[in-house]
C-alpha cells in the first residue's frame, strides 16, 4: 500500500501555489548523484530512496544507490504521514542550492 503526504492548496500561499508544478509528472525523476552534480536551483525533481536518518524536526538524510542528500520536509507533512528511519520513500520537491550545499525542499512524498 502506498501512502502519501502533501500540503493542500489551502495551506500554501498563493505565491507557492504558482511556483509549484501543476502535476507531479512535471518532476524530473533523477538520482541523488545527478542532483548533487548538476541539479539547478529551483529545479523540480523526484528521487526514490531511503530516509536513513532524521537530523531535526524537518531535516532528514535521503540515501539511494548513488549517494546521500539532505532533504527538508515541513512538519505539517510529516505529522500527516510520519517518517521513521529507515523508510523507503519517493520525494518530490525543489533543489535548493546555498553556496556549496545542495538539499531538496520536499513538497510531497509517498512511502513504498
Automatic annotation (TrEMBL):
<keyword id="KW-0732">Signal</keyword>
<feature type="signal peptide">
    <location>
        <begin position="1"/>
        <end position="19"/>
    </location>
</feature>
<protein>
    <submittedName>
        <fullName>Uncharacterized protein</fullName>
    </submittedName>
</protein>
<dbReference type="Pfam" id="PF04076">
    <property type="entry name" value="BOF"/>
</dbReference>
<dbReference type="InterPro" id="IPR036700">
    <property type="entry name" value="BOBF_sf"/>
</dbReference>
<dbReference type="InterPro" id="IPR005220">
    <property type="entry name" value="CarO-like"/>
</dbReference>
Amino acid at each position: 500500500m502506498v501512502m502519501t503526504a502533501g500540503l493542500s492548496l489551502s495551506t500554501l500561499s498563493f505565491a507557492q501555489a504558482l511556483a509549484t508544478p501543476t502535476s507531479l509528472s512535471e518532476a524530473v525523476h533523477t538520482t541523488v548523484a545527478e542532483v548533487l552534480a548538476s541539479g539547478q536551483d529551483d529545479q523540480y525533481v523526484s528521487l526514490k530512496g531511503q530516509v536513513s536518518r532524521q537530523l531535526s524536526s524537518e531535516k532528514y538524510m535521503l540515501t539511494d544507490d548513488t549517494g546521500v542528500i539532505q532533504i527538508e520536509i515541513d512538519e505539517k507533512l510529516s505529522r500527516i504521514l510520519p517518517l521513521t528511519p529507515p523508510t523507503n520513500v519517493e520525494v518530490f520537491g525543489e533543489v535548493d542550492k546555498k553556496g556549496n550545499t545542495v538539499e531538496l525542499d520536499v513538497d510531497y512524498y509517498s512511502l513504498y
